[in-house]
Amino acid sequence: MSTQSKSCLVEKLSYYVDLDDIAEKHLAALEEHERNYYRHQEVYSEGDELQYLHVVKEGWFYSYTDMPDGRRQIIRVLHPGDIIGFPDISFEEATCNVRASEDGCLCPFPKSKLDVIFRESPKLTALMFSIANRDHACVIDTLRAMGRMDARERLSYFFLDIIARLRVTNKAMSNTIRMPMNQHEIGDALGLTHTYVSKTIREMEDAGLISRNGATLTLGYEDKLRDMVDFSDRYATLDTSWFPS
Amino acid sequence: MSTQSKSCLVEKLSYYVDLDDIAEKHLAALEEHERNYYRHQEVYSEGDELQYLHVVKEGWFYSYTDMPDGRRQIIRVLHPGDIIGFPDISFEEATCNVRASEDGCLCPFPKSKLDVIFRESPKLTALMFSIANRDHACVIDTLRAMGRMDARERLSYFFLDIIARLRVTNKAMSNTIRMPMNQHEIGDALGLTHTYVSKTIREMEDAGLISRNGATLTLGYEDKLRDMVDFSDRYATLDTSWFPS
DNA sequence: GGGCTGCATCAATCTATCTTGAAGACGGCG
DNA sequence: CGCCGTCTTCAAGATAGATTGATGCAGCCC
Questions:
Q1: Which chain A residues in 123-182 sit with Cβ < 7 A of strand D?
Q2: φ/ψ (deg, to 5) at A14
Q3: Taking the CB of the first residue and of the last residue of chain A, which one, N or C, has fewer CB atoms within 10 A?
Q4: What is the predicted pLDDT for the residue at B170?
Q5: Is A65 within 7 A of strand C by CB distance?
Q6: A143: nearest CA in chain B?
């Protein structure tokens, strides 16, 4: 149980808004149960009857969809403190698969716990609403990348996005990240083949834009990369001005 | 004012759940004001300070983003009864542009009207939450199409999506739709060039998959097209089982 | 009627990315 | 230590889709 130290969820949300005791109590209820997953383990699959959302407690996960012929699209990488499943909430069945990118831990909670929040805490409701729609905006950014960017730009966007997300809970973070996804997975996230990911990353490294050290990746000129893809940080701030008090 | 006949918004939402008088009153408040737009007119632009959402009252609109070098990505086509702006709600500034695809009419309402709904109607809150996240799931479907489908599949997906949406308010609709977007816009929605859209549509027509008549488009073998892209209808049903009563 | 503009179409060329196959690098494990 | 699976890299050839520029058609305005 996660009572001794603050949970990642509370940490992440309190970055945006002050959480009172009642709100923290509601959030703690979302993390009552937990379950461990090992690298590449499936959490749930498209078409599964699904009445749960999940809070990521530890490790990286990702959501993805498959096409009948085996093509795969990774939709979103999920980090500790993220909530998994908002886009699925409108349906009885899961619309995508979720898998552990590395060993990790999730806290499942039923949709009906949101109902309690909706009835008892308008402020937390507004926050949940904002987080879900912020994630929506991030998927739109990915869509833009996939539709109109070439391979180098997509990779830059991908790395910038991840680093911006990790900074929410670790403001002091440098421009070096641990990268627990292989090139096949990165390709599936960006609509590229793993061979082309390999080639492009190598070229970016040769150009001095990034450097690697094992599973660790460092962005060389973050400003230059940001300009290249016209990057907007969707994580640094949230408009809470209209929230109920 | 839209008091004599039911508004598109109410019509669309009551497709999913019974709306009581209080809910209808809240929804009517979202459509108090209205403004007309002509074809290709900009509603708002990326970076604009934006405290409003909009209900589409009449006509097709679309949201899109531009890259500095002129590349453009259309994110989503919006029809009467749709709510524009959920993905922007978390930010003070608009994250995308919105434009009229043809002459039409919008009803702007401030974010703070959601706040009222959050405080007074948990049921309508859950519905808004579901609609916003349903739209999120639809953008994910588009992402899948852009990442892993070829041109013909993307076009099939695009047409199937539109027809499924229109069926929510018009169940009797055949497989013929009016298509008020030109091929350049369709290309921007699907990450293709307008010349390639033209070529591919022509080939699909020659193959008997679709047929055209002016600005009207008919899907030949809807089942075949659905199989080709593994299509899921996100509009026909919504899971309301967990809603507060 | 004549000219303009927007739109769809066609064709020739070009290129980014895919496909396939094979070879290193690396770590884990018997 | 040596084997084996996973991951990355390299190379050669194939192709889907981009690019550019020209043509035709329709509606619209003068």
A1: 182
A2: -70, -10
A3: C
A4: 85
A5: no
A6: B143
Residues of A in contact with B148 (CB under 8 A): 67, 71-73, 191
Interstrand relation of B42-44 and B97-100 (parallel, antiparallel or unpaired): antiparallel
Kindly report the average pLDDT of chain B as a whole number.
92
What are the strands, taking DSSP E only, across chain A? Answer: 35-37, 42-44, 52-58, 61-66, 72-78, 83-84, 97-100, 104-110, 176-178, 210-213, 216-219
DSSP secondary structure, B12-79, as one string: HHHTTS---HHHHHHHHHHTS--EEE-TT-EEE-TT-B--EEEEEEES-EEEEEE-TTS-EEEEEEE-
Res B183 pLDDT > 60: yes
The amino acid that residue A55 corresponds to is V
pLDDT of residue B138: 97
The series of mean pLDDT values per 10 residues for chain A, 245 residues long, is 67 92 92 93 94 95 92 95 96 95 94 90 93 97 95 96 92 88 96 96 93 90 93 95 86
State the Cα–Cα distance between residues B166 and B179, nearest whole angstrom.
12
pTM, two decimals, is 0.94
Place of tokens 């994630």: A135
Nearest CA to B90 out of B133, B121, B50, B130 is that of B50
B113 membership: H or E segment, kind and range: helix B112-120
Q: Where does residue A40 rank: exposed (0-12), middle (13-18), buried (19+ CB within 10 A)?
A: exposed
Interchain CB distance below 8 Å, A139 and B140:
yes
The phi, psi pair for B3, rounded to 5°, reads -85, -25
Residue of A nearest to B129 (CA): A129
Q: Could you tell me the end-to-end alpha-carbon distance of chain A, in angstroms, rounded to an integer?
A: 30
CA distances (Å), B38 to each of B8, B85, B96, B103, in order? 19, 20, 19, 4
B38 touches strand D (CB under 7 A): no
Residue B69's pLDDT is 86
pLDDT digits (tens, 9 = 90+) for B29-76: 999 999 999 999 999 999 999 999 999 999 999 999 999 888 999 999
User: Which residue in B has a C-alpha nearest to residue A64's C-alpha?
Assistant: B144
Q: Say if residue B17's pLDDT is above 70.
A: yes
Say if residues B113 and B51 touch (Cβ distance below 8 Å).
Answer: no
Chain B hits for A114, Cβ within 8 Å: 126, 129, 242
User: What would the 3-class secondary structure string for B210-238 be?
Assistant: EEEECCEEEECCHHHHHHHHCCCCCCCCC
Place of tokens 């030109």: B182
Residue B181 C-alpha from the chain's centroid: 13
Percent of chain B with pLDDT over 90: 83
Give the pLDDT band of residue B5 (cuts 50, 70, 90).
low
Determine if residue A156 is left, alpha or beta; phi over 0 gives left, psi from -120 to 50 gives alpha, anything else beta: alpha
